[in-house]
Specification:
The chain is mainly alpha-helical. The chain is 94% helix and 0% strand. Helix 1 packs antiparallel against helix 3. The protein starts with a helix and ends with a helix. The relative contact order is 0.13.
Length: 80
Amino acid sequence: MNSKECGSLHGFIGSLARVKSKHRAGSDDVVGNLPGVRRELVEGIGSLSGWRKGVRRKKTKTHRKIVGGSRKACRELKRS
């Protein structure tokens, strides 16, 4: 996970915390800031799909490295 993806995830979590704290402050605050809160949540949720793609890409890359290494080891054993 790179720093950009990590930052967007932290931003999303932070926006959830702000929503929760605004809810505690009083219903007027939440209603007054609802469009802004909704926009922050949508941006945060949208960034999660990119984060998941990045995680999948990293897992695939790691898997290919492992498989490639084991194939190389098998070839070397056959030569010996």
